[in-house]
Design brief:
Length: 275
């Protein structure tokens, strides 16, 4: 499958397939490669756009810019403009879930539907609070600190090869990026605004997720008016990697429901159609 990689500002994007734009946003210190199991599954029907947020993965990491939730949301807007996207379905993992919530609340006209995976309305779970992360970076260095979080992120059935893949991916994020990103994530709070998210929303969480425990997903699903909660068994913080067949089925079902509500326009974007 052909994957086109391009740099937009400080953001590297990986694009495959054609059709309705399906934009995947990864989490704290992770990368676009955490969506690797979704590429083939969805590129036959959608324009799959996987983002390496600035400072993460293979994206640039200049020291003169911000690595905050708001800045990342602006980076997504720049991707929309560069790729001539009017509207898209956004899929956010963990910190990426916070980023896409922020984007949706700021630019509701640009979001057709929302998918929140291992996400919260406020910070992360108690196991990964800002003080713990910053202390670990100070004591162990950012690579070891990030890899320690990864070790706790997977469910019991995850193979060692999968954990090692994730350990290598998170090692790419430098300390100054991680520090600013985790502080901004800790400060983010959408609880009072969840009712303003007016698009169909799928909330997904693994039963063994201790990074963003299932209770956080319940808060999201209860707060967002048009939402659906799916809990995936035998998965931790990364159900799309740990149980890809189950995750892809859940996402595909949700997208089919969205397809019945939205139709293509004659232009480059999409138009909403009430059925």
């Amino acid at each position: 499958m052909h994957i086109e990689t391009k740099t937009i500002g400080d953001t590297v994007v990986h694009v495959s397939g054609a059709g309705l734009p399906l934009v995947f946003v990864h989490g704290f210190t992770t990368t676009a490669q955490f969506w690797r199991e979704q590429i083939e599954a969805f590129s036959s029907r959608y324009r799959v756009i996987r983002i390496d947020l600035p400072g993460h993965g293979v994206s640039p990491r200049p020291e003169g810019r911000s690595y905050t939730i708001a800045a990342f949301a602006n980076d997504i807007l720049a991707v929309y403009r560069a790729l001539e996207i009017d509207e898209a379905i956004l899929v956010g993992l963990s910190m990426g879930g916070t980023v896409v919530q922020t984007f949706t609340l700021s630019h509701p006209e640009r979001v057709l539907a929302l998918v929140l995976v291992g996400a919260t309305p406020h910070g992360l779970g108690a196991d990964v609070n800002v003080d713990n992360v910053l202390k670990a970076i100070d004591d162990l260095g950012v690579v070891q600190a990030s890899q320690n979080v990864i070790e706790r992120s997977f469910g019991r059935t995850a193979g060692r090869d999968l954990v090692e893949f994730a350990r290598q991916e998170v090692a790419q994020t430098p300390a100054f990026v991680a520090r600013e990103a985790i502080a901004s994530l800790n400060a983010s709070d959408s609880r009072a605004n969840l009712h303003d998210i007016g698009v169909p929303t799928l909330v997904v969480v693994g039963t063994e997720d201790i990074i963003t425990p299932p209770g956080e997903s319940v808060v999201l699903a209860e707060g967002i008016p048009e939402s659906r909660l799916e809990v995936i068994a035998d998965a931790g913080h990364f159900p799309m990697l740990e149980q890809p067949r189950v995750f892809n089925h859940v996402l595909e079902s949700f997208l089919k429901d969205c397809d019945s509500r939205f139709s293509r326009s004659s232009g480059t974007g999409l138009s909403r159609q009430i059925v």
